[in-house]
From TrEMBL:
<dbReference type="Pfam" id="PF00795">
    <property type="entry name" value="CN_hydrolase"/>
</dbReference>
<keyword id="KW-0378">Hydrolase</keyword>
<dbReference type="GO" id="GO:0003837">
    <property type="term" value="F:beta-ureidopropionase activity"/>
</dbReference>
<feature type="domain" description="CN hydrolase">
    <location>
        <begin position="72"/>
        <end position="345"/>
    </location>
</feature>
<dbReference type="InterPro" id="IPR050345">
    <property type="entry name" value="Aliph_Amidase/BUP"/>
</dbReference>
<dbReference type="GO" id="GO:0033396">
    <property type="term" value="P:beta-alanine biosynthetic process via 3-ureidopropionate"/>
</dbReference>
<protein>
    <recommendedName>
        <fullName>CN hydrolase domain-containing protein</fullName>
    </recommendedName>
</protein>
<dbReference type="InterPro" id="IPR036526">
    <property type="entry name" value="C-N_Hydrolase_sf"/>
</dbReference>
<dbReference type="InterPro" id="IPR003010">
    <property type="entry name" value="C-N_Hydrolase"/>
</dbReference>
Length: 392
């Protein structure tokens, strides 16, 4: 399906403004803390060869007197399904692998040290179709499945941490399926994994029938390039999920997504940015693009036809938000693209110090209300007006 009639991006409209007005509007919407990032000529040549949109930016940093800067470059890759869903699974995977390998090459030449793929990046986003087969066949072992093995080689070759969100097949525990982010360090070693904790139960959504809720908590992975956490897709709607990762020491939180719909797109530019501000972390959020067409009508949980065969439009728009509230330009809503952003991890502590986030946060008060809620002793603390009217 052609996406030519879709708006390419908000930024493409903003750049039609006169220069003076553009600077003012950009400052109001995105902040004034980002400038262009220089990348190598080899990087730019590969972008042209692989026909990728490239957005590159550098966040401003304030040097400290005692700590050297902790600069890191991250890359976010958004991609559409390159072949029809009538293709066999191995062919779809092979085509997606090719796209990802090309993007990793570009990111490496651009100096990126952490690379994040979109949610379920090696397959169609089939979880609302109401069909288990053949889509569950995409599930594989997280630690040594074919997808992980390919990315291990790329991570080692390019001295790069790679975050890969896949369907995990747990062969030890009843062959269960999980929606899992695998973290591969820059030495090609699987550092660990995070299973998605929040799974939507919404109209047109059958995701709970495919995979289980996560059971690994909110792990943070310490890499040579910073401490990273992963909030998978729908979990971006839950402030405590971001908070849990921040409490465990995350400096960068990645949010690989498959997001569609006007209501969701309205929230897209707000949620990750809010999470960065509230928790004093960088947030890197990456979304799928394109529209996927299935053979059969979608079904709801009761087996009723929804009367459409398409996934809806994945609107891309991947971006990075900083703890001081500034954010990067976004990638296109319709094109395969790579965002490379450089920032200083020292800003996380600087923001927490300047805003007093650790000093003024009232953890015991939050603990008390959550304990009451989880122990079924919760009663809303509502003070009502008591009328003392007398009857005549």
């Amino acid at each position: 399906m052609s996406l030519e009639k879709e708006l390419d991006s908000v930024e493409s409209i903003l750049h039609k403004l006169p220069e003076k007005e553009l600077r003012q509007v950009w400052r109001i919407l995105y902040g004034d803390g980002v400038k262009d990032l220089e990348v190598s000529e080899k990087c730019l040549k590969l972008v042209s060869r692989y026909k990728l949109e490239l957005v590159k930016c550098k966040f401003n940093n304030t040097p400290e007197q005692l700590r050297p800067p902790r600069l890191v470059r991250v890359a976010l890759f958004q991609q559409k399904l390159p072949v029809p869903l009538t293709f066999p699974i191995y062919k779809v995977k092979t085509e997606m692998y090719t796209l990802a390998m090309d993007a990793v090459k570009v990111a490496a030449k651009g100096g990126a040290k952490i690379f994040c793929l979109q949610q379920a990046w090696n397959m169609p986003y089939a979880f609302c179709s109401g069909e288990k087969m053949p889509w569950s066949e995409y599930a594989e072992k997280a630690e040594d499945g074919s997808t992980t093995r390919i990315l291990q080689s790329l991570a080692l070759e390019n001295n790069m941490v790679i975050i890969s969100t896949i369907l995990e097949r747990d062969e030890v525990f009843e062959d269960r399926i999980w929606n899992t982010a695998v973290v591969i360090d820059n030495h090609g070693i699987v550092l660990g994994k995070q299973r998605r904790n929040h799974i939507p139960c919404l109209e047109n959504s059958n995701e709970p029938t495919y995979y289980c809720e996560g059971n690994l908590g909110h792990p943070v992975f310490e890499t040579e390039f910073g401490k990273i956490g992963i909030n998978i897709c729908y979990e971006r709607h839950y402030p405590l999920s971001w908070f849990g990762l921040a409490l465990n020491g995350a400096e960068i939180v990645f949010n690989p997504c498959g997001a569609i719909g006007e209501e969701t797109e309205l929230l897209w530019s707000v949620e990750a940015r809010n999470a960065a501000i509230e928790n004093g972390v960088y947030v890197c959020t990456v979304n799928r693009i394109g529209m996927e067409i299935y053979d059969h009508e979608y079904e709801d949980e009761q087996g009723n036809l929804i009367h459409h065969k398409d996934s809806g439009l994945f609107f891309g728009s991947s971006y990075v938000a900083a703890p001081d509230g500034t954010r990067s330009p976004g990638l296109s809503r319709t094109k395969n693209g790579l965002l490379i952003a450089e920032f200083d991890l020292n800003l996380c502590r600087q923001v927490k110090d300047s805003r007093g986030l650790g000093i003024t946060r009232k953890l015991p008060k939050y603990r008390d209300i959550l304990l009451k809620l989880t122990n079924n002793e919760f009663k809303p603390q509502v003070i009502k007006k008591h009328c003392q009217c007398t009857s005549t």
